[in-house]
Amino acid sequence: MLALRKTAPAPGLSLDEVPEPGRPGPGEVLIEVAAAGICGSDVHVYEWTGSYEFMRRRLPVILGHEFCGRIAAVGPDVPGLAQGDLVSAIPTIGCMKCAACAGGFAQRCESRRTIGLTSDGAFARFVRVPWLACIPLREGTDPVLGALMEPLCVGDNAAEVGAVTHGDTVLVLGPGTIGQAIARAAAWRGATTVVVAGLNDGARLQTARQIGATHTLDLAHTPDLASAFLAATGNRMADVVFEATGHPASISQGLSVLRKDGILVTAGIHAQPASIDLTALVRNRQQIRGAHASQRRGWEVMARRLYETPEAVRPFVSLVMGLDQAIEGFEQSKARGVSKVVLQPGLAMEAA
Predict the structure, then answer these.
(1) Which domains does the chain have, with CATH numbers?
(2) pTM
């Protein structure tokens, strides 16, 4: 089968013919991938930027952790799932033996692995995963939208970490997929004002407006974030600020418009440390919280939302391409001229 792999600790990816995963073992299912999204993390791996050295000893690895598909085969000891079921999958897999896993917190597992980063993922026709990772999607769910499950759940988890509630004024720094997902989640949770800021990000800011932002700011045209934000909100400071840029300077920028007792949630992956004024943070009684990945209960809620309100998230998807066009999709994602690029392995097969 054709697969998009990271084969060396250097910039670039490789489209290779590789063996299919084979029959699933005990507790596993084999999924025929219907759609898989290119994540910002995938782009970082493509460029081989900082913070992804942990992958080095796992290479080569097939990328792709945002996906959905139909179960092609079921291994022994798999309850509740059957061939033909439409599913997405939580990419973080715990050891299922430690106290963290027993408590339902695979993210805390010291032996966890991640589909598409430290074990083979979904940029291929088939991917084999533990059945416990699977989240059933309702029949009739658009598979392309099913590939949005992971980033939408990451955004919703960040909104939960930030305790967004009805009437809040929210600022999201960074209009990438996670920033857009946070804006959508904040709107779902009742925020009255949702401002999304970017830098030379016209296309992605337009998407942010389509999926729930009440205001957008392009800091290339309004470089003073504080003045532009307060003008948009009628001089109201932010109750919650989300940093989804990965640029350390965004932390201080966000704190400059955060009200006293407010919460700043950082969801970006930073290659460099950030510098902040801790005295101001203490005197303003502000909090900084980290948000990463998601929790299973959020996936179950999102599966229902995708089925019931698909048009609320459809603007996320800019391009749908065959797997054989993956490198072009990565280049477009890297250039920030699109929001989400979704790859469909079946398109390449049909064209062939």
Answers:
(1) 2-148+313-351 (3.90.180.10), 155-290 (3.40.50.720)
(2) 0.93
